[in-house]
Amino acid sequence: MRRGVLVLAIASLAASAGAALARPPVVVELYTAQGCVSCAAADARIASLADAKDVIALTFSVDY
What we know:
With about 60 residues, the chain is of the alpha+beta class. It has a domain at about 25-64. Helix content is about 50%, strand content about 25%. It has helices at about 1-20, 40-50; strands at about 25-35, 55-60. A two-stranded parallel ribbon has the order 1-2. Strand 1 (about 25-35), helix 2 and strand 2 form a beta-alpha-beta unit.
């Protein structure tokens, strides 16, 4: 019983240490403009980046 509690305590410490070492998410911002020639390619690229679990993808479309 005592050994089981020790194993659980060590596992808990290892899990919390791993969480502390985890990297925060990366924020990627894309600003596009009306009539932009390369914006379609940029939109496709940020869409693929947004699929990653450690990326927060933000897009802002500017009209004039």
